[in-house]
Prior knowledge:
This protein is α+β, with helices and mostly antiparallel strands. The chain has helices at residues 14-25, 56-65, 76-89, 96-102, 105-114, 155-166, 225-242, 291-299, 333-337, 375-388, and strands at residues 3-8, 28-33, 48-49, 70-73, 122-124, 136-140, 150-152, 173-177, 182-191, 194-202, 216-219, 247-256, 259-266, 279-282, 288-290, 307-309, 313-319, 325-331, 342-347, 354-355, 366-372, 390-394. The chain folds into 4 domains: 3-102, Rossmann fold (3-Layer(aba) Sandwich); 121-177, Dna Ligase, domain 1 (2-Layer Sandwich); 182-311, 2-Layer Sandwich (D-amino Acid Aminotransferase, Chain A, domain 1); 315-394, Alpha-Beta Complex (Aldehyde Oxidoreductase, domain 3), CATH 3.90.1170.
Amino acid sequence: MRRVLLVAATTGYQVREFAEAARTLGVDLVFATDRCHILPDPWGDNAAPVRFEDPEAGIESLIARGPFDGILAVGDRPACVAAQAAERLGLRFHSAKSATAAANKLLTRECFRAVGMLVPDFQRVSPGMDPMRYPCVVKPLDGSASRGVIRANDAEEFRVAAERVAHMGFDELLVEDYIPGREFALEGIVSGGRLTTLALFDKPDPLVGPFFEESIYVTPSVEGEAVHSAIRDAAQAAVTALGLSDGPVHAEMRVNDRGVWMLEVAARPIGGLCSRVLRFADAQAEGLCHLEELLMRHALGDDISSVHLAPGAHGVMMIPIPNAGVFRGVDGLEEARKLAGVEDIVITAKPGQVLVPLPEGSSYLGFIFARGDSPGTVNSALRKTHMSLKFHLAAALPVVK
């Protein structure tokens, strides 16, 4: 039985998806997580404990658990750990240097600028500084899901935004020019430095700030081939600039009259449960497969050149948190699941859970999945379904110290 090492956070949504993919493919999946190293297997998954902030000892212990035939990661920090582990274990994956650059917004910008790609003016935030121009965007050097990303239109808004992001615990901040335009996401896989696009998503909501909460992803994109080609070329240039070589990538970009502006290329697959929106057909096999199966096959060195996105249109809504509070429940769920085009609704928030919206928060209420004949019908189905749901959040009581 072939063995794959998966580096992931203990609370990662996708861990179950990869576990199911391993069962389907008959693969022995070994977990390396940030679980407590003192308690004996607290999650019951026999995961190897690895401290993501200082992984050397954990990686050393993984060598004793080998050999492995492939390696994968879920999340930015786990991808950096997986890259280091891959170099020690002799496995095919992105290099540690490239994964580190991809996970750091400042290093990413510097790599893109060095090869002449379109990049906004940017600089590290220092106390008392004032951006060269407005509007600008303040963001932490690391992090995902647009957490801590805030637009500022003048000096006062910039001061408030910088303080707000700093209070979230981020040590270093970046400020850069705001980039107008339509936003897209690309899901891909890299082999020997060459990018294969698996899906190109439209983000139909106007993401203009002051916060940039992503909500709807729909594929295939409704844009023309000229835009698609430009995005693929820019994504390949970004992959090359960062040095990403082997493994999944999730890229985000904006497109305007000047061209394609790469926002990021992460050395990992799409996050949360969003991967469930993707289904792939294999010309050499019957039925459809999930993204996690495809990534596992690639990690094992299998030929996936005959795999392509399933016909039709596919979409997911990451249900936004409307306001801070304690989640009490949702009405209309069963009726919403019966609406045309809806494939599934998964509520990930738990009763009693304290929820915080962006920019401080980093989670969602859940996910809505829809499929249809066209991107337009899928987009409409997602919005109609969301409007039919009523979420109940009670005010959280203040903590008395």
